[in-house]
Amino acid sequence: MSASLHTLKNGVRVVCDPMPGLETLALSVVAGRGAAHEDLPRSGWSHLLEHMVFKGAGTRSSRDIVEVIESQGGQINAATGYERTSFQIRALKGGLDLGMEVIADLLLRPTLDEADLAREKQVVLQEIAEAADAPDDYVFDLIQKAAWGQHPVARPILGSVESVNAATNAALSDWRGALYSPDRLVISATGAVSEAELLAAAERAFGAVPVRAGAPEPTAAPFVGGHEGEVRKLEQSHLVFMLPACGAREQDYFALRIFAECLGGGMSSRLFQEAREKRGLAYNIDAYSDTYADYGALGIYAGCAAGNAVETAKVCAEQLVALARHIEPAELARAKAQLKAHMFMAREAALSRAEQAAGQVLLFDRLYPPAELAAEVEAVTPADVVRLGERLLGGGRCATAILGAKSALKAGPAFEKALFAAA
After folding, report:
1. 198, 199, 204, 205: CA torsion to nearest 10
2. How far is CA 160 from CA 47, 182, 309, in A?
3. Which of 83, 245, 280, 315 is least surrounded by CB atoms within 10 angstroms?
4. Do 4-206 and 226-422 have matching folds?
5. CB-based contacts of 109: which residues, under 8 Å, 6+ apart?
6. Kindly report the CA angle at 204 between 203 and 206, in degrees rounded to 5?
7. Quick one: which of 99, 104, 106 has its CA closest to 57?
8. What pTM did the predictor assign?
9. Where are the domains of the chain?
10. pLDDT by position in tens, the chain (length 423)
11. CB count, 10 Å around CB of 356?
């Protein structure tokens, strides 16, 4: 049974993807806006709003919202990202109507009480402090700043102390209307659901939402590049290196995914084998693709002793340049198999499948059948990977972020020098 895509009269899109044999369902209502749509004064407001709607919505209190879902065996959660905000429910078969009703209340009818806002600001400020205290989280805030300059994605999703404290209920209410407007809203359900049941529930809950323009789309982020570093007394230094790449809508997207997989995607990857297995430089080392709709980057993370930071940086640069010049047929085949496995395994989990479908609709206004995705992966050639490598190195720019001992800060310039000298 294949997934289907429908559009309500007000522009809300609905994905129905039954999974025969399941006794549970996953419902995900995704707004295609997030922290990347915020200006500086509203930095962190999408995340703060996500917190606030759970403090009371419709006729339910904060406790009622959770209890009414959990009393029926369900689970409720939400997440804020740069380009989307997602509200998720897992439930037993038959729990669709209740789940849809509760999420609709959260998005459309939050209470937004003044006393709740004052308390929730303190919760978010603690979250900001906690992130700053976690070096393997905070170093990624540093790399975003180094890579993207003044663009909203350069700022933490949590916002700053100043911007969070500046939020008012009236301003958050206005932001809610812009963030959750129907033009970028996708309802995605998988598992024990039927098309007729889902469409009826979606129409009741979201069909009457007034058509309105939401927050304007942000411009594509220019990759600025540069070095960010902070000295801390840590047992391990944390290194992140980043190069400009492509967005999820671009032709090179799957070549980028394969490049990252070969470079540092698993235990057979070049970085793991060279930096950890052969040289013992780092315990944690991996590469990843960081993609948004229309721009993106290739990233490398390593955690190592401060005395190994410079050598680790050089190894990362050397392995990246070597892969950009040539990929072995066996490692290309292995990377394709791993990438397809990641995608297909995610489809076996109902919530991941619902989120994946919503993401496809927001990016492409269509659904991608698994066979088509597999074909896209298989179509990547060695020449495509080399072309992607040329793109990574061709701009002559990189971003680095180092957190740890003072001596480790030399790893950023060492990576840049080794990268472009070798290229």
Report:
1. 60
2. 11, 28, 30
3. 280
4. yes
5. 57, 58
6. 65
7. 106
8. 0.95
9. 4-206, 226-422
10. 689 999 999 999 999 999 999 999 999 999 999 999 999 999 999 999 999 999 999 999 999 999 999 999 999 999 999 999 999 999 999 999 999 999 999 999 999 999 999 999 999 999 999 999 999 999 999 999 999 999 999 999 999 999 999 999 999 999 999 999 999 999 999 999 999 999 999 999 999 999 887 888 888 889 999 999 999 999 999 999 999 999 999 999 999 999 999 999 999 999 999 999 999 999 999 999 999 999 999 999 999 999 999 999 999 999 999 999 999 999 999 999 999 999 999 999 999 999 999 999 999 999 999 999 999 999 999 999 999 999 999 989 999 999 999 999 999 999 999 999 866
11. 21
Helical axes 96-108 vs 195-206, angle rounded to 10°: 30
CB 14 within 8 A of CB 187: yes
CA dist 14 and 4 (Å) reads 8
d(CA 5, CA 25): 17
Bridge-based pairing of strands 85-92 and 75-80 is: antiparallel
Distance separating alpha carbons of residues 230 and 327, to the nearest angstrom: 35
CATH top-level class of 226-422 = alpha beta
CB 239 within 8 Å of CB 260: no
The CA dihedral of 66, 67, 69, 73, to the nearest 10 degrees, is: 120
In angstroms, the CA 415 to CA 423 distance is 12
- For residue 110, the one-letter residue type is P
**Gyration radius (Cα) of the chain, Å:** 23
E strand residue ranges, 143-224: 185-191
